[in-house]
Amino acid sequence: MSTSELSSRISARLAQDIAVGEIACGAHLRAQEVADRYKVSRTPIREAFAALEEQGILRRFPNRGYFVADSIPQNIISEIKEAVDVARDEYQIFAEDWLTDQLPEIVTEQALRQRYNMTKARLSDLLARAAREGWAERKEGYGWRLLPVAKTAEAFDEIYRFRMAIEPAAMLEPSFKLNKEALASLRRTQERMLEGGVNSLPAEKLLDNGATFHEELARMSNNPFFLSALERVNRMRRLMEYRTKIDRQRLTEQCTDHLEIVSLLEQGEVLEASFFMRRHLSSALRRKARTAKFWSMTHQKD
Amino acid sequence: MSTSELSSRISARLAQDIAVGEIACGAHLRAQEVADRYKVSRTPIREAFAALEEQGILRRFPNRGYFVADSIPQNIISEIKEAVDVARDEYQIFAEDWLTDQLPEIVTEQALRQRYNMTKARLSDLLARAAREGWAERKEGYGWRLLPVAKTAEAFDEIYRFRMAIEPAAMLEPSFKLNKEALASLRRTQERMLEGGVNSLPAEKLLDNGATFHEELARMSNNPFFLSALERVNRMRRLMEYRTKIDRQRLTEQCTDHLEIVSLLEQGEVLEASFFMRRHLSSALRRKARTAKFWSMTHQKD
DNA sequence: TATCGGATTATAGCCTCCTGAAAAACAATC
DNA sequence: GATTGTTTTTCAGGAGGCTATAATCCGATA
């Protein structure tokens, strides 16, 4: 029964893949293959398999390994699909507390350990992550300083303006190279969203798809600094957007824009695509500005 | 005599400031003021003061505090100026080892602890820092993966191209606001360098001045994402440039460019300054490209 | 021969106690 | 009243043992 954190993470991901149909029913799951994919050893994989067998998602044949069950009850599938949203981890709680002024600007590790009831190691991971994302920094002596970077409503604008600087530029890098497959995959995702996903998928997934779209394009620049800068601001954006209600009308327009960009790129019109990207971000900024203003009036003090 | 790490860091910085003339002879050093500047309490400051008094750099008057000595022997001054270079900490050694292929791509914490003879906590700080800078990431199971981001000669180009995208854009941000004082201070630093500093200052200090120049301008954009992105790539650049010989001729041209940018800004010609910045970076890139090529032939294998 | 299954080895997180050092509170001096 | 000097409190890093769990090795099986 000992489901370690790692193996349960893995089993959750596998379950996802099976539920979505990424992994076909009846397929043989080779332990080593899966281990390679997740870049871990076979040990946690086997644990994950065992856990999934208990749920009836996999079947085991001694000395032959695990196979995806031939049919999986609908109720289990929907159960799996919903499970994603629950993953509100300590980090998000911490971030949320900071964004909502529940924490002082200067905090000691002790105070945080007490508040969140965490061990030293876990806490220092937490802080390292926040530091990595750019909103916490260790003071020289004791304590940490939490930065207001992502707190203000203006941060929305700032992120969009930053993206306006890097994303179109990334597409014009001399090392930029179209990745047809990635592009096709992006197109599929956006089309699926337009064909109803916008209204059915969970908010988190929708935001994720949007971020992935932009990041994949940045990746094609083949300049890792553009990509990692974008990933960075996107992570921070997510912290904030997590709290705002999603505007599904806006998402539809976004997807249309995204598809337009894909089309331009497919035709090799990189320069046009870059321009269009800039406009796309700029219109998002204008819209955001209004949302942010509203948000600031309703959620911020003074 | 217990000189903690923090207080000795502080005393080193103070000594620097005094040696360079940033802090005048005979000046009264108020403990609280210095503490505020370094964002620590008075305790480590007082220790630093005591250490500096022992070296004869400060004088103590009971109940009145510490004062900079009226005259500091030349030999002590040059000693201080050289001391900077020695501060090659574990992090730099670690980075160096990775850049020179002394470390495998996948490493366990144990292996690193043994190699560098570090405690758990220090090592995890080290790795957190590398992760923060973007060239290490924790694997899902045990171990860390070191990323080749900053290893290749191309990374030089990539960083400069990234900077070409963000730095001129930062100056055109609607929130951009000139900071006259900061500008004046930058001008002074650059002028000092042209007036001989280029040949006398330690390499590290020179690189530092350059980075600071650009970062201060990015700060004036009042968009923290531009600034932090620049700081990020600068840190990485430093890891690499640390190993290459410094070209003092090139530095002179750089300083001239920097002064030109300051002049444009002082006249309110922000647009021109932005253009000039782009050209400035682009010429550095062209030059770098040659250096990097040379560097790759001489330092890299295959 | 590729894959699985079980046994062994190694890793890293957690816990507790301990201590040097930083922060904070308080007292003294000009 | 601002600043220094002293004391007390709090903090976080270090060491070492313990344990869950990940990696690895090796034999078994189809």
Automatic annotation (TrEMBL), chains A, B:
Record-annotated HTH gntR-type domain positions: 4-71
UniProtKB keywords: DNA-binding, Transcription, Transcription regulation
Spans through the membrane: none
Coiled-coil intervals: none
UniProt keyword annotation of DNA-binding present: yes
CDD domains (UniProt xref): WHTH_GntR
Listed PROSITE patterns: HTH_GNTR
Pfam families in the record: FCD (PF07729), GntR (PF00392)
Keyword Nuclease listed: no
InterPro entries, A to Z: GntR_C, TF_FadR/GntR_C, Tscrpt_reg_HTH_GntR, WH-like_DNA-bd_sf, WH_DNA-bd_sf
Identification of the protein by name: GntR family transcriptional regulator
